Amino acid sequence: AYEVDIDEVYRTLNIVFGKYYVNDFNLYGRIFHVNLGAEGEYRDDLRDYSYVYVRSKNGNLIPISSLIKTEFIPDAPILERFNMFVSAKVLGNPKPGYTSGDAIKAISEVAKEVLPPGYTIAWAGTSYQEVKVQTKGNLALIYALIFIYLILVALYESWSAPLAILLSAPFALFGAALGLNLFGLQNDVYFQAGLLVLIGLSAKNAILIVEFAEERLKRGMGLVEATIEAAYLRYRPIMMTSFAFIAGAIPLMFASGAGANSRMIIGTTVVMGMTFATLFGVFFIPLFYYVVVKLRERLSKITGRK
């Protein structure tokens, strides 16, 4: 055994190949740091360590080459940290014809395939804000449906009738998603804002039918007759108001100039969504209402409540 303290080896290597802090001293009213280290010409080559010796506990000088083994390994010149973890920063811009959302999706998919266990990715800057907004946008959509349902429950004093109204929303959402894919647009905050508008507009069309049918039921009219009359008499007002809105939003689909992409997204969302909600809603909303009322009547017979 060489009887060499490992701390002495580290200290010697630090002195020769690094900077070893000794102390401070005052001179001319200033404080100077004293650092001990070898001249640059004696530490440029890795083989220089073979000329370095370290003193053992019994006073002998032991060549440090007999105590350590050198090996070249790849390493980053600078180690950065992100959220207190060692990280590697990746910067880039999407190719022409692709959006930032497409780039975020592609990077996420590649990261799942190539990163080993224990590694993950985290977004920063505008990418982080975009990912965060997408998550909040989905929550806003859910909250919108819940609040609309609760408001309608209070309005009609019924838990069942509002279901027929909210069942019109999937047509609008499907049309908006279809338009987004057909035109190759991005799912961003403008698309999500358009969805919130669509939920309210599609619910408005359904309210026209459901409210009219509910009034006829209270007057003693049969369910089938009330549903058919509501669909027939409310057909024209629904078509007129809906297509007037669609016609007014069509220019947004073909916007140009600065900020055109955002206008195209929200225009395509509301136009395609309202088109589907109107064309299919006027036929399916009466059907939904009929089914919901039938279920309500059966439940009332079982529970004994009106």
From TrEMBL:
UniProt GO molecular function: xenobiotic transmembrane transporter activity
Q: Where are the transmembrane segments?
A: 139-156, 163-183, 189-213, 238-258, 264-292
GO cellular component, as recorded: plasma membrane
A family per Pfam: ACR_tran
The yes or no answer to whether the keyword Transmembrane is present is yes
Q: Which InterPro entries match?
A: AcrB_DN_DC_subdom, Acrflvin-R
Quote the Gene3D superfamilies the UniProt record gives. Multidrug efflux transporter AcrB pore domain, Multidrug efflux transporter AcrB TolC docking domain, DN and DC subdomains, Multidrug efflux transporter AcrB transmembrane domain
> Mind listing the UniProt keywords for this protein, alphabetically?
Membrane, Transmembrane, Transmembrane helix
What's the name of the protein?
Answer: Hydrophobe/amphiphile efflux-1 family RND transporter
Which organism does this record belong to?
A: Thermodesulfobacterium commune
Starting at the broadest rank, the lineage of the source organism is: Bacteria, Pseudomonadati, Thermodesulfobacteriota, Thermodesulfobacteria, Thermodesulfobacteriales
